[in-house]
Write a structure and sequence with these properties.
Strands 2-5-8-1-9 form a 5-stranded parallel sheet, with helices on both faces. Strands 3-4 form a two-stranded antiparallel ribbon. With 291 residues, the chain is α/β, with parallel strands linked by helices. Helix 1 packs across helix 2 and helix 10 crosses helix 12. The N and C termini lie far apart (58 Å). The protein is built from 14 helices and 9 strands.
Length: 291
Amino acid sequence: MTWFSSPSDAADRLGATGYLTDAATATTTYLAGALEKPLLIEGPAGVGKTELAKAVARATGADLVRLQCYEGLDEARALYEWNYKKQLLRIQANQGSDATWDETHDDIFTDEFLLTRPLLTAIRREEPTVLLIDEVDKTDVEVEGLLLEVLSDFQVTIPEMGTVTAVRRPFVVLTSNATRELSEAVKRRCLYLHLEYPDAEREREIVVSQVPGLEEAVATQLVAMVARLRELELKKAPSIAESVDWARTLIALEISDLDDDAVNATLGVVLKHVSDQERAVKELRLDRAGR
């Protein structure tokens, strides 16, 4: 399968799904498909890393298989595990038969007893698939070792069954918020893309494209306010998705001017921590006398 025919094709088709790209993002996305290389995307939370993988799936008609990473993730949740209870029941059911242990082993270590997890699921699929390994930096370093065989050879080795090699290689996207340094072994196997928050003009384009009916003047005010919020030392800076949510909120409330009153009334849409809201009020000198 040819994922995209060129960088411009990638930009056009991703844009048609609502994901606006710059030249570097479009080129790297095209190359990930053309070279069949995993794509590692790093950057702060909320800049569109996960959304890019979803947009690739939408643009190409592929299914999305997602591995959400977290501390404590292990092989049984990432790759596969055996249904031990069902295997035990089969062994008990065969008690008294003349089956040898080798025959019993071959009977219980089959697809019938295999519980596939996201990595193995994506490798075994024959349909076009986007494999999203989300927030890989949240896992333990040891988990990266589980990924290497998938990232380099697009295969998974199951000791009891052998090696499962992808019939159709998935489009693999790894995302990282850069909370820790990933191993060089993982990085060597991937193309690399760093995403930052877009500039004001690009974010305005994104917001306007996602929120039909938003007045240009309000969109400009909103993007400028979001940029000011991101300059503050907040626990969680507003994401692009939250900028879009804020715009939809203004439409719903029929607000045509993002003045202090409007910001005060809707600040919870973009800032989800009380301390962040208090800092914003103080640093931006918002008037809350009427609240």
